[in-house]
Structures are given as C-alpha cells and as structure tokens.
Amino acid sequence: MVERLRPSGVELVRIDPASAEARQCLAQYFAELDARFRGGFEAVRDKPPDPGEFTEPSGCLFLARLDGSLTGCGALRTLAPGIGEIKRMWVSPTARGRGVGRSILERLESEARQRGMHTLRLDTNEVLTVALRLYRAAGYRETERFNDNPYAHHWFEKALAAT
After folding, report:
1. How does pLDDT run across 127-151, given as a tens digit for each residue?
2. Cβ atoms of 73 and 64 closer than 8 Å
C-alpha cells in the first residue's frame, strides 16, 4: 500500500519487516545509532522486539520514500489493549528538515487510532535532539520510564484524540 501524504513527494509504504528493503533501512538506522550514541549501539542490548510485533495484527512497519529514494522508517506495536509504542523512527540525514519524520509520525498515529489505541508511547536517546523536538512539537509529553531500554534517556506518552 502506497500513500502520498504531502505534495513534497513523501510516500509511505507498509512493508513486511522481514523484507530486504526493510532490513536495509533498519541497518542504516542501527548504523547511525552506533555512530551517534556515546559508547555505540548494540541492537541485542536494546532487547529488540520480535519482527512479528510489527506485522498484523500486532503492529506495522512503514518505509518512507522521498522522490523515490528510501529515506526513513517507523513502526508501531501493541503494548497492551489501547496502548501502542512507536519504534524504529528514523529519517536519513539527507532528508531531514523536509517533513519526512512528521509524515511518518502522523501516519503511525493515524494507524494507532484505526486500531482503537488511545495512548502512544515512545522512548529516545538524549543525543537525538531533532527527534526530541519533533516529539515535543507533536504533543508528546515526558513520562515515567515504561521500559528497560538501556539507550533511552527520555520516555514520552501522548493521548490520542478520537477522529
């Protein structure tokens, strides 16, 4: 399924997390985290969710393309009835500042509403300042730690308005 969200050329594609394109995008995401995080990043320490948590009926994964090029990703998974978690939000450095991250976030929020979720949660690292600004601007509020992610410094939650 392809969805054109903005006239700027951002397309979001729902994709199987096990696909080659999804693995390629996630590899770029993890490589950037490894380069940016103090002390690097090891996915196994993050206790990564099973890829099945990002497939129906538990969740979904979207890849973003800007003018045809793979530029980002974002995933949604169910934590508990009515509560979802956003994971794997990433935008390529070459596409930042062009609305890709906001497009991904808005699509994940829409998907969560369609699934009957009333609350979304996410976590992030302190060095990801652009992500912190995006989440705060989108109405996410800092909350208590809700997981044991060793790389997270900030935990956020947002109550979703019904549409």
Report:
1. 999 999 999 999 999 999 999 999 9
2. yes
Tell me the CATH number for domain 2-159. 3.40.630.30
Other CB atoms within a 10 A radius of the CB of residue 113 amount to: 16
Q: Write the pLDDT tens digit of every residue in 52-100.
A: 889 888 999 999 998 888 999 999 999 999 999 999 999 999 998 889 9
* Residues near 78 by beta carbon (within 8 Å), at least 6 away in sequence: 53, 58, 59, 84, 85, 115, 117
Closest to 66 in 3D by CA, of 43, 99, 38: 99
Q: Could you state, in order of their start, the residue ranges of all structural domains in the chain?
A: 2-159
